[in-house]
Amino acid sequence: MLLQCATNRRWKENFKGKQNVDAKFEWYRFTTRFALPVYNNDMGDIERFNGFRIEMLIRHAADKNLNLYDIVNIKKK
């Protein structure tokens, strides 16, 4: 779901030879957002949502699948 609503797709090349096996078709970076609910301890109801902006490092593997490798640059909004 995070990848479906992601924007700002950027291509990155392999910098190390060992990555040619894992990420044959290089890497991508995407920017996306998500929100997590904050619950009230007394009632158990949702008080608010905390929104986050993240960058995902995606590996484009030899099987042509996009795999989430890491989440970086997490910022609370």
Quick take:
The chain has one helix and four strands; from the N terminus they run βαβββ. It is mainly beta and 77 residues long.
Write structural notes for this entry.
By secondary structure, this protein is mostly beta strands. Helices cover 5% and strands 58% of the residues. It has 1 helix and 4 strands, in the order E-H-E-E-E. Strands 1-2-3-4 form a 4-stranded antiparallel sheet, with no helix packed on it. The two termini are 19 Å apart.
Structural shape: elongated
User: Strand order of the main beta sheet, please?
Assistant: 1-2-3-4
Count up the helices. 1
Query: Helical percent range?
Result: under 10%
Beta-strand residue fraction: over 45%
Q: What's the main sheet like?
A: 4 strands, antiparallel
> Cα-atom Rg, whole angstroms?
16 Å
Structural class of the secondary structure composition? Answer: mainly beta
**How would you spell out the order of helices and strands?**
EHEEE
